[in-house]
From TrEMBL:
Domain of life: Bacteria
Protein name stated in the entry: PD-(D/E)XK nuclease family protein
UniProt-listed InterPro entries: PDDEXK_4
Length: 429
């Protein structure tokens, strides 16, 4: 820990006077409440229920439910599922109602079905189990299947395992459950965004759901944050040593020591340091520019991993680091007129179990959002075993289920995955 001195103020001013800092300051704002929320599976299920219910206030009728049912035909399904899906696809879905957290009794135990969609008139129903970073528990899917079939024996059923992480569930999988990720919903939301097809306030909700709940935020699709990543990367590299020094500073309160952060300073009261004009001046400078400075300060290990991969594997690699994930691109192919990069690897932080080690998963993602790159994306998808049927918009495939984030730069599976990505994408012309 280091005392705040006149040199500390001078060092801080070197950052504030950087022309890029003004640009960063104008972008260092949260424009959505979802940026503050930490959604769990219950919250996500409630949002899904709102979208899937044809009678809800999104005013899209059966649009989302239809998108879900139709997407099942493009999943990796068994032959017997095809007829079940066709029965739903061939009929109106406007009569369904959507229930969440439905309590059921299985033997002597009680369980809850995440989402249950029921149409009493057509005697059709859909059972959905939602997973966001967790795996199916012991006999969970089998219990739901048995209950549904025994209580509604003559009904037509669809059973869906909706897993945003695309995990392999091994022995806990069930033959009757069709596993999908959130690609179908991203596609459906994408189709409504930017077309003036829905009222502005509803489109804002759809845009936020796509960016913060069912997909990854992308500065390319939000002009407000144009060039955000490049600005923060430039500033972090330019002021790396100064930022490291500032992170060791503390305010002195007689015999008390408090780190130079917002909570530490204000919890002891401004009057406690009013005798030290250098600390007061530093505090005024720091806290009047708090948001952009904290963004620079929190440039985390994902950014460092991206830089390491560029240095150790190839300068062709480009990356976009966020709090919960980072994306790797082959800079050989640019699509700046598209809201999405045509293909990339995305590394997601997995949910941490209590005192468990932090891990990440890796998946390949391809987008058909730019005519120039459509053929290339289909070729890349084929090399990864991803099906791209007519009219496809986006597809993804899990490549690595779980590896420790710690020392990931030396993990052979991860490094091989990145090298394979470059090798595959380099072959595409």
């Amino acid at each position: 820990m280091t005392n705040i001195t006149q040199d500390s103020v001078t060092a801080l001013m070197s950052i504030l006077s950087d022309p890029d800092f003004i640009k960063l300051s104008s972008r260092a704002k949260q424009t959505s409440l979802f940026e503050f929320l930490r959604l769990n599976e219950l919250n996500t299920c409630a949002i899904l229920a709102w979208l899937l219910d044809p009678k809800e206030g999104h005013d899209q009728g059966e649009y989302f439910l239809r998108a879900l049912v139709n997407s099942l035909a493009g999943a990796d399904i068994k032959v017997e599922h095809a007829m079940d899906i066709a029965k739903f696809a061939a009929t109106s879905l406007s009569g369904f109602c959507c229930l969440t957290e439905v309590p059921i009794s299985v033997g002597e135990s009680s369980k809850r079905i995440d989402l249950l969609l029921i149409d009493m008139e057509s005697q059709k129903a859909i059972c959905i189990e939602r997973k966001d970073g967790t795996k199916a528990s012991r006999s969970q899917l089998k219990s739901y299947f048995d209950w549904c079939k025994s209580n509604y024996p003559d009904w037509d059923w669809l059973f869906i395992l909706s897993d945003s992480y695309d995990f392999e569930h091994g022995q806990e999988s069930h033959d009757s459950f069709i596993q999908i990720n959130d690609d179908w919903l991203e596609n459906a939301l994408d189709n409504l965004i930017g077309r003036k097809a829905v009222p502005a306030q509803v489109e804002k909700i759809f845009r936020e759901l796509k960016s913060f709940v069912f997909g990854n935020w992308n500065e390319r699709s939000d002009s407000y944050y144009k060039d955000f990543s490049n600005i923060i990367k430039r500033m972090t590299k330019r002021h790396k040593s100064v930022l490291e020094d500032i992170s060791t500073l503390y305010f002195s309160y007689g015999d008390r020591v408090v780190e130079a952060n917002k909570n530490g300073f204000y919890s002891f009261g401004f009057s406690d340091v009013c005798g030290n004009h250098i600390e007061v001046l530093f505090a005024k400078l720091w806290f009047s520019n708090l948001e952009p400075l904290e963004m620079l300060h929190e440039y985390d290990e994902f950014s460092l991993i991206g830089e390491y991969l560029q240095d150790s594997i190839s300068t062709k690699l480009e990356y976009d680091a966020r709090e919960k994930y980072f994306c790797l691109f082959n800079g050989k192919h640019n699509a700046f007129d598209s809201p999405h990069w045509p293909y990339y690897l995305v590394v997601n932080r997995n949910k941490v179990e209590s005192e468990g080690e932090e891990t990440v998963s890796v998946r390949i993602k391809i987008y058909n959002s730019n005519e120039e790159f459509a053929k290339r994306c289909e070729q890349i998808g084929g090399m990864y075993g991803i099906k791209t049927p007519d009219g496809w918009n986006q597809r993804s495939k899990l490549l690595i289920n779980s590896i420790p984030l710690r020392d990931i730069e030396n993990n052979p599976d991860f490094l091989d995955c990145v090298k394979d990505f470059l090798r595959i994408t380099d072959r595409v012309r």
